[in-house]
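Page 47, continued from p. 46.
Same chain as before, 230 aa.
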Amino acid sequence: MILAAGRGERLRPLTDACPKPLLMVGGKPLIVWHLERLARAGYSEVVINHAHLGQMLIDALGDGRAYGLRILWSAEPPGALETAGGIVQALPLLGEQSFLVINGDIYCDWDFAAAAGIAAQMHGHGDLAHLVMVPNPRQHLAGDFCLAAGRLGADSSPREAERLTFSGIGIYQPALFGALVPGQRAKLAPLLVAAMQEGKVSGERYAGRWHDIGTAERLASLDAELGGSL
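Result:
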């Protein structure tokens, strides 16, 4: 699933007339980088949620055949449903097995093909989630969660834990969202923290290419980095 329903307030006025995932970077819409990588990694179906200017996304990407994929669309009401709420809304399309979720406003070269093996390990350990974590960027030096020996927690114990930033790439079991009601707004972080407290969240540190496209300046920087190189 690619999360694409956000308003993109920090990218205004660029997002006043264009949904954030369709902003151009390196010669193509940001979301197309995800779609192409997913197709190369062997995926066949992708769910995309939408709210703000959602019809523009549908018109641009269609059914996904142009990318070697089948796109299933999950509509949300104006204002969207937040991350967890959007995932719950899409669960009927995602099925009963674990699934990969990617923020539509990031650029990352993490290997999407690795998700299948991770999902199998999660099932064996009884984990509800696996998060790809990255070194804290300048705009988020405090990080999000602490990683130690492949396990994630909300605080810095044990002592050797490293505080990192959530990349926006995660693998989830449907059971993580079992207490939520479709159609209601819900944030993802409280669910993850609760699962961490039960020891049911694994994680990894990824030091490769990752960008959070949260401002026009970061969009322009990534565009310059990709321009003419890929």
